[in-house]
Amino acid sequence: MKKILIDPNKCVTEEEKISQLYAEVPKVVEELVKLWDKKDRFEHIGPIPIPSHESIVQIIHQTRCILFPGYFSKTNPSKDNFAYYIGQRTTCLYEKLAKQIILALKHDCFQKKQPCCDCKTSGHEMALKFIQALPKIESLLTMDIKAALEGDPAAKGPDEVIFSYPGLLAITIYRMANTLMKLGVPIIPRIMTEHAHSLTGIDIHPGASIGEHFFIDHGTGVVVGETTKIGNRVRLYQGVTLGALSLPRDAGTLYRDTKRHPTIEDDVIIYANTTILGGKTTIGARSIIGGNIWITESVAQDTKVLLKRPELNYLGRREK
Length: 320
Description:
The chain is α/β, with parallel strands linked by helices. It has helices at residues 14-22, 25-36, 53-67, 82-111, 119-151, 158-164, 166-182, 188-200, 251-254, and strands at residues 203-204, 209-210, 215-217, 223-224, 229-230, 235-237, 241-243, 263-264, 269-270, 275-277, 282-283, 288-289, 294-295, 304-305.
């Protein structure tokens, strides 16, 4: 910051000093405008608005209110007005989601320098297909809740899992985002799962394929990459990474459409802080992978992979 020179022999009021500081702001603005004129800078200046992050977070909340009636809404529905409650919220969700999908489609056309064609109609069609998928999402989440109850002795009941388990929150948002990604909706699915990541510490890419009856225990630090395939009845613990092998600097272009992340077959349990890497790596059905293990090769079905017990050194004064 440029130092403001003030004559010490002259009496200057605070207002005059602040006015001189304000006078420096336009110079910074001029520099910023020059920077944004360069081709390698990122900006979104133009007539096409970008989807609203705040609105997408609201869509997540509205969808949860529909999937779990009475849990997250400010008013509790009764049996007498339940159909009206669901109908009003579902219609509102459809309208809000359609608006954001239209913006996402227009933004995608803008970014790719393509003419926008039928974005409004396509946005409404995609929003309707998401609404039509809600019963399936609800059924999957019901099985995910049962998986938590069966896999965690500390779970006192479904209400506790729904209200407080970060794993279920991350899975819920993933299942919304994955549905939208399969419909071809740009940018919104990633915004959704990164919002879940910021809330829970669980990073699930919306492109990952995850089967039913899925449970993440504790959850902090779990990473599931874009091309990961997870079967049914799989359980993960905190710190598990299902990632890609080391990639070159230009990997974003060369490996974008390739299988980079592992496959986890049915009924697998992976314990805390284990890392499994590579698109050709498959963990066979019914296998158990212990904690703190690094795997880059496939594991056969019905296998236990355990780390050899380390030798511990106890330093300090011994008790007599």
